[in-house]
Every structure is written in C-alpha cells, then in structure tokens.
Design brief:
The protein is α/β, with parallel strands linked by helices and 218 residues long. Helices cover 14% and strands 24% of the residues.
C-alpha cells in the first residue's frame, strides 16, 4: 500500500539525529516537524527567519504572525528565535544546517533536482531553494513517485528547469526509499505491501535492487 504524505514525513523523521539543525521546505517536508523521534532534540529552521520551529498548532490556537516559508501557521518551541532573512540565509550559506528536506517535481539519477518552475506556469518566485541545494551536503527529497498522469518523477534526466545539480542524497516517495549514488537510484526500502516490480515499473531512472529489500517500518 502506497504511503500517505504524512507517512512519508514519518519515515524521513527517522533520519533525524540529535542536535541537528534541519531545514524543512514547502509541502510534505513541513510535516516532518510533527514526528520527531523520542529521545532526540532537533532544531528546525525555516528560511523566512525562524529557528526552533515546532509542530503545526492545534486548531484554534494559531498565531497569524508565526508562519513557515510556505505561509502556514506554525509553533515555536521554548528557546526558539525569530530573525531577518539575511541572518537566515547566512546560516544556510554558511553550512550550519545538517539536513535539508525538500519537495520536488523531478529528481534525476545523478542527484539533480527540479522543484521550482514548470515552464508556462506562473511562479511567485524561486524562494530559497537554490541557496539550500547549493549549500547543503545532506538533502533528502520527499515526493510522490509518479505524477497525476502516472508518469515517473524518478528520472534518468530531469526535463524541467533545474534547481540544483548532483545534490540529492536520498529520496523518500510513497513507494519506497531510494539512495542516490553512482549515477543510479538504489532501492533501500519499499512501502508496506508494495512490490519491487511496482517500484521498477514506476521508475524511469536506473534502479538498482540488491539483495532482500525490507518493507518500510513507519
């Protein structure tokens, strides 16, 4: 059974490590803040100038002045801080973030990512995506494996304008967990009830399947 967006976020949360600073992009990545594993402390950073971002607020307790980069209302944990965009991007460009989680429209087998523009469609702006991919050493992408037409978004080569080149380290989709290395996608885990054949059929890029592939534990 394919994962929901919430379950993709839960799986990515297992990648978090104690004392890490983590940037969460727009979309599925914002959900990761709801699933911090017990026993670790993580500082979530939002590029609009927020450090110490907590989970989404309970309905009725929202503060319109506290938002993430996607303009969603969020909470701030004790000790959190709010600052200007210049300081936020100094933190990003200075490589003070140990993990960046982004959404994407396409990811290529060499680690290229396209997540900011579809030609012919209006976009409000690039945002901080290019700064994030240029500065981060550990980028995990959260995305659906295929688009609404059933076409693969896990590709040999991206067809959309690139955000970053050769930067993605891992992809977590509704079908499985893929590591990007040696110009190929390496299947690490599959979603519960999803067969290797289903993942192969949904993957346009080179997919390496080595040994027994375990089902994902959420």
């Amino acid at each position: 059974m394919a994962l929901s967006k919430q379950q993709i976020a839960q799986r990515i949360a297992k990648e978090l490590q104690d004392k890490w600073y983590v940037n969460l992009g727009i979309g599925i990545p914002t959900l990761v803040a709801n699933y911090i594993p017990e026993g670790i402390e993580v500082e979530f950073q939002s590029e609009n100038g927020l450090l110490g971002m907590g989970p989404f607020p309970v309905e009725g307790t929202e503060d319109a002045d506290l938002i993430n980069a996607g303009k969603q209302t969020v909470t701030v944990l004790d000790g959190g801080s709010i600052f200007d965009s210049a300081t936020s991007f100094s933190m990003i460009r200075g490589k003070h973030v140990q993990l960046t989680v982004l959404g994407a429209m396409e990811v290529a087998q060499n680690g290229d990512i396209a997540n900011w523009k579809i030609p012919g469609k209006m976009v409000k702006g690039m945002g901080g995506a290019m700064d994030l991919v240029a500065s981060a050493d550990n980028i995990i992408v959260a995305m659906m494996h295929t688009n609404k037409r059933g076409e693969s978004k896990i590709l040999k080569q991206c067809s959309l304008p690139l955000t970053g080149v050769g930067c993605v380290t891992k992809v977590v989709t509704n079908l499985g967990v893929l590591e990007v290395k040696n110009n190929a996608f390496h299947l690490l885990e599959r979603a519960p009830g999803v067969s290797i054949e289903e993942i192969q059929n949904a993957t346009d890029g080179t997919l390496i399947v080595s040994g027994e592939i375990p089902e994902m534990v959420i």
